[in-house]
Structure to design on (410 residues):
């Protein structure tokens, strides 16, 4: 408990202290200690989210200290159409700064209480939720400000967008975080966060009917947001602060459920074969980097290299004769046709034939072509770039796993 309290206090101090703690002429003693902070709260009081915790030290202390030190606070409400609902400087005339410390503290506490009450009464107005647009709006509310020692965005909510460019309904949690951010960068969707610290609270804390995220999925979500902030030139801080219960009397606009990936594929790593006796506990993905095909064909670009890549898998299967596998061919793009379905099947067949040639009993291998209609496909990636390349693959699964059974039953 003591460690948790210390960590929270450290985070709060990092947010509200000035980049330079040496006072300059005309500043009060409080300003010399903490500096003037500009803070934007990005809050998402929406459906499918646990209640926002406005009682956390991160919220309470940061607002109070920002107001006490004559800072600036803005508030963005995130839903399908994010909106800036408050933007105020809490500076006061110089003559009032000479009041007693107790008077200044009392006034700051009153203003903080009023602002928190105002934030607590905000709810979503529009269906869905677009956190990236909310972040962009927060940046705009702070970017033109001058004379502040620090700029901070506090993001309160699940961070699981269901609309906009960063739409997690597109199966983004199946992709590597860096690939997702590469795609955003290609589309020039990452805001300029130079000099800004982004602090998250309640990231991944979803509520019914949204399916709960696993710890691995929460970590992936955190890594995506951390990469977005860091690519934008900012600093990302994650806080594991508990949510409040949802007020069931409030009716929120609809937010779609994000279908969460199961058994997310791992990219094939030959080194893992020496250590991992459960290689097919998760699906294994042979991407274009592992096994390359001639464009629009089921012929290896370099047959010798492809066989060399597949050979350790064959050796593993021959050592573990109890395992039967399914090979699933997948393609880039979001539209399927007879051609893409046939091509994906033929590429899976090519890997099957190679495994058989290397000594694996053909009765242990079944191949299917799924095109883009597969559990791991990341939508919206098009045909170019790293995510599109990962969408073109042959995926190996243990034929007895639930995912393989479901695919084979369709």
């Amino acid at each position: 408990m003591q460690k948790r309290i210390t960590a929270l206090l450290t985070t709060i101090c990092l947010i509200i202290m000035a980049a330079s703690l040496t006072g300059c002429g005309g500043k009060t003693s409080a300003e010399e200690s903490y500096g003037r902070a500009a803070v934007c709260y990005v809050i998402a009081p929406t459906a499918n989210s646990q209640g926002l915790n406005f009682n956390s030290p991160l919220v309470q202390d940061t607002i109070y200290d920002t107001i006490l030190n004559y800072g600036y606070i803005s508030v963005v409400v995130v839903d399908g159409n994010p909106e800036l609902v408050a933007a105020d400087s809490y500076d006061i005339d110089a003559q009032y700064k000479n009041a007693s410390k107790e008077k200044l503290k009392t006034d700051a506490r009153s203003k903080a209480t009023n602002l928190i009450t105002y934030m607590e009464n905000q709810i979503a107005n529009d269906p869905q939720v677009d956190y990236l647009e909310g972040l962009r709006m927060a940046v705009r509310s702070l970017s033109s400000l001058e004379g502040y020692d620090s700029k901070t965005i506090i993001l309160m909510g699940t961070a699981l967008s269901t609309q906009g460019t960063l739409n997690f309904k597109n199966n983004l949690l199946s992709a590597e975080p860096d690939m997702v951010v590469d795609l955003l960068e290609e589309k020039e969707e990452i805001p300029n966060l130079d000099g800004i610290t982004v602090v998250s609270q309640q990231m991944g804390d979803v509520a019914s009917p949204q399916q709960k995220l696993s710890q691995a999925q929460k970590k992936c979500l955190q890594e995506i947001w951390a990469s977005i902030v860091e690519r934008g030139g900012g600093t990302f801080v994650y806080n594991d602060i508990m949510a409040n219960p949802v007020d069931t009397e409030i009716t929120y606009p609809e937010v779609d459920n994000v279908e969460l990936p199961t058994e997310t594929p791992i990219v094939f790593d030959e080194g893992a074969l020496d250590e991992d006796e459960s290689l097919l506990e998760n699906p294994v993905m042979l991407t274009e980097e592992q096994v390359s095909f001639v464009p629009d064909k089921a012929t290896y670009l370099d047959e010798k290299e492809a066989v060399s890549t597949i050979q350790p898998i064959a050796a593993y299967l021959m050592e573990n004769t109890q395992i039967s596998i399914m090979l699933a061919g997948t393609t880039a793009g979001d539209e399927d046709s007879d051609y893409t379905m046939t091509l994906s099947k033929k590429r899976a067949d090519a890997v099957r034939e190679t495994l058989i040639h290397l000594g694996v009993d053909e009765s242990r291998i079944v191949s299917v072509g799924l095109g883009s209609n597969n559990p791991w496909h990341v939508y919206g990636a098009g045909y170019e770039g790293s995510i599109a390349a990962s969408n073109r693959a042959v995926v190996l699964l243990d034929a007895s796993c639930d995912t393989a059974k479901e695919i084979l039953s369709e």
Remarks:
- The chain has a mean pLDDT of 88.
- The chain is about 35% helix and 15% strand.
- The chain has two domains: 2-239, 266-409.
- Residues 25 and 32 are 10 Å apart (CA to CA).
